[in-house]
């Protein structure tokens, strides 16, 4: 850096890491990209700096950082791949890892669910957490609460655009769910990231479905488990306390980490994590299958009898019996 001192500090978030960059007073967007390249190895022309705007548009390289009025230590999310990474993506993978590191919490679930201090924390969130309603809840709709990272989006792989990391059939899934459910997004990151990601994926501007509201890490609470220490979790009680039409009877939550719903284990469905987007994009059908499940259970008055661990085996009763048996017949005749 020059002797003029470092007058802009920018934090680049990329591939799950943060890089703090110091730039001189007269630095431009082009300089920022060069500094980003030095830190991450991603070429300037491959960098996409999300949320960086000048007069409502992505800034040209000659725009001075001073003119953009960046706040001190502004965080910018970057999409972009190193050349080596791009080469790797083109290679055939040697092994396809699908290890989900979620610890087993079964015995601890119930004990924690009822602990008074946690209920007090939930009360506090209900009072203090401000929800920015994007689209008013609709009468008679059930509630679907969705995690983002590894549920809707692979946030660790590198790519040119957010769309490459989007879980397959995301929009189809949301469109179908929207018919019976109001949709809420809940991510363990800050609201800025939640908004940037949902915007990049086109979720907040889709013509055929609407997002009711989004929650971030501030709506979470920390609980202590004897075995694993302090963990941050997403208690649905925060939403239920604010909206009396929703409860365990008509709510379902998807998350790739089971411990996130330790406060309401019966209401959570642990979705398979979507990772290694480049390898799994063509085969992941999880959201298509879950669309069907949501449709089937939407007819129920009460979700509390369901065991979402067995969602793949779920068969709707009576009403759809006919369809089911004809499907079976078709399958059987196809087998012979
Ligand atoms: Mg997740």
Automatic annotation (TrEMBL):
It is found in: Nucleus. It comes from the Eukaryota. Transmembrane segments: none annotated. Pfam families: NIF, ubiquitin. Its cofactor is Mg(2+). One of its GO terms (molecular function) is metal ion binding. Its EC number is 3.1.3.16. Residues 8-85 form the Ubiquitin-like domain. Its main location: nucleus. The keyword Coiled coil applies. InterPro entries: FCP1_dom, HAD-like_sf, HAD-SF_hydro_IIID, HAD_sf, Ubiquitin-like_dom, Ubiquitin-like_domsf, UBLCP1. Residues 137-297 form the FCP1 homology domain. GO terms for cellular component: nucleus. It is an enzyme of class 3 (hydrolase). It catalyses: O-phospho-L-threonyl-[protein] + H2O = L-threonyl-[protein] + phosphate; O-phospho-L-seryl-[protein] + H2O = L-seryl-[protein] + phosphate. Residues 315-336 are annotated as: Disordered. Residues 321-336 have a biased composition (Basic and acidic residues). This is Ubiquitin-like domain-containing CTD phosphatase 1. The lineage of its organism: Eukaryota, Metazoa, Spiralia, Lophotrochozoa, Mollusca.
């Amino acid at each position: 850096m020059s002797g003029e001192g470092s007058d802009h500090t920018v934090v680049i978030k990329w591939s799950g890491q943060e890089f703090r960059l110091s730039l001189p007073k007269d630095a431009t967007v082009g300089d920022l990209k060069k500094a980003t390249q030095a830190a991450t190895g991603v070429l300037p022309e491959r960098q996409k700096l999300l949320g960086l705007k000048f007069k409502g548009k992505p800034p040209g390289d000659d725009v001075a950082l001073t003119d953009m009025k960046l706040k001190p230590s502004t965080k910018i999310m970057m999409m972009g791949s190193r050349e080596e990474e791009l080469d790797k993506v083109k290679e055939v993978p040697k092994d396809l890892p699908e290890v989900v590191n979620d610890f087993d919490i079964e015995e601890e679930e119930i004990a924690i669910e009822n602990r008074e201090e946690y209920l007090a924390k939930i009360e506090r969130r209900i009072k203090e957490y401000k929800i920015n309603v994007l689209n008013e809840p609709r009468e008679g709709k059930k509630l679907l609460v969705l995690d983002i990272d590894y549920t809707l989006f692979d946030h660790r792989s590198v790519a040119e655009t957010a769309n490459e990391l989007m879980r397959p059939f995301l929009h189809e899934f949301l469109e179908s769910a929207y018919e019976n459910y109001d949709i809420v997004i809940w991510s363990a990151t800050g609201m800025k990231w939640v908004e940037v990601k949902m915007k990049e994926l086109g979720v907040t501007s889709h013509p055929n479905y609407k997002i009711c509201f989004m929650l971030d890490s501030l709506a979470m609470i920390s609980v202590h488990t004897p075995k694993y220490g302090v963990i941050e979790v997403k208690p649905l009680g925060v939403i239920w306390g604010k909206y009396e039409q929703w409860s365990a009877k008509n709510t379902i939550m998807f998350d790739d980490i089971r411990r996130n719903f330790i406060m309401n284990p019966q209401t959570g469905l642990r979705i398979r994590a979507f990772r290694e987007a480049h390898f799994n994009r063509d085969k992941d059908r999880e959201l298509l299958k879950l669309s069907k499940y949501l449709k089937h259970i939407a007819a129920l008055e009460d979700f509390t009898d369901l065991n979402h661990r067995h969602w793949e085996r779920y068969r709707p009763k009576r009403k759809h019996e006919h369809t089911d048996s004809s499907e079976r017949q078709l399958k059987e005749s196809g087998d012979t």
